[in-house]
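Thread: Newbie trying to understand structure tokens

Hi all, I'm a second-year student working on a class project, and my supervisor (Dr. K.) asked me to get a predicted structure for one chain before our next meeting. I've only ever worked with sequences, so writing a 3D structure as a token string is new to me. If someone could post the tokens and maybe explain what I'm looking at, I'd be very grateful. Here's the chain:
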Amino acid sequence: MNSRYLLCILTLLSAGCGESKHDAAKPAAPAAAIGVTLTTAAEQAWPAVYEATGTVRARNSAVIAARMMGLVREVRVREGDRVREGDVLVTLDSRDLDVSVGRATAALDEIHSAIPEAESGVAAAQAQLDLAQSTFRRMEDLLAKRSISSQEFDEATARLKAAQAQLAMARARRAQLDSQAARVRQDVRASEVTRSYAEIMAPFSGIVTAKSAEPGAMAAPGTPLLTLEREGSYRLEAAVEESRLASIRVGQAVNVTLDGVDRTIDSRVSEIVPVVDAASRSCIVKIDIPALPAVRSGLFGRAAFTLGQRSPLTVPAAAVRENGQLQSVFVAEQGVARRRLITVGEKSGDSVEVLSGLASGEKLVFPVPPNLTDGAAIEVHP
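---
Reply by user tm_fold:
Sure, no problem. This is what the structure looks like when written as tokens:
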């Protein structure tokens, strides 16, 4: 009885194993084709653009320094403050200059006080001369009539000459006072001008970008105290390769992009520095930037110069898949999607330049389905 049961069990197991081998040998059902649309890699007319980098700088900037030696008494501004032309920025100790102005003014007042006395002396000398002239004329008449002696006439002549000399001396003293007054007035003006150097004023309206002095410091001629830039007046100073200079001219339109400014700025070339740097083999091209609130000196910028046209091979940018540093597209080959590694260049709008990996006229999948893989069967839809 046990042998019969064992034989039945072995028979059933053998039958089950035979069915499993038969099922495994059946071929898998083919995967369904993925419906896609295709686009063509083709050449496209693009502007030939040369990009140069540079730094934004103020068109008008000034390093504020003292014109005389002096102790800094007050600094009225801080970095970032906006000032107007003529505002007092820094004051220096001017007490010794005040003394000089007072001394010169006192000397001028003393001369002015002596003028009335000198004018009185001229008037008195003129009166004496008038009297001497009248006396001399009478003496002449009497001498002609032989009523006086020659000695009396000589005495009248001498008094006339003495009166004339006295008047000349009085007038000379008066003129001397005028000359002294003019000289002292110049001294007063010079002292006042020197005293005005103690108040350092803004030469134009702008913004303070650097502060180098504090109260109590000693200011010296030429030593920077502040740096002032005219606000709203900036330009990009870009370094352009010497081989590109022949294609760039003053007045040329340029598209400028700046770090921190989320837009492209339409600008123009304002100046080309006529010197090439021997180390970098480049030349500075200055590009005027319109007034924008976010623009400030020191920003990094890029200038895009349009230098003609070119015809690169392009594909839609959305058709390119990126995996780390690798870029690829799916190319349609006999009903199958094949992944193709490519090298891309510049991007313009919705298209990207293909430098290598594709030929003009090849068909590629666009848009790319999310489940598309290399080697997958595809069905092209119109």
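A couple of things are worth pointing out once you decode it. The first strand starts at residue 34 and ends at 36. Residues 95-144 form the longest helix (50 residues). Feel free to ask follow-ups in this thread.
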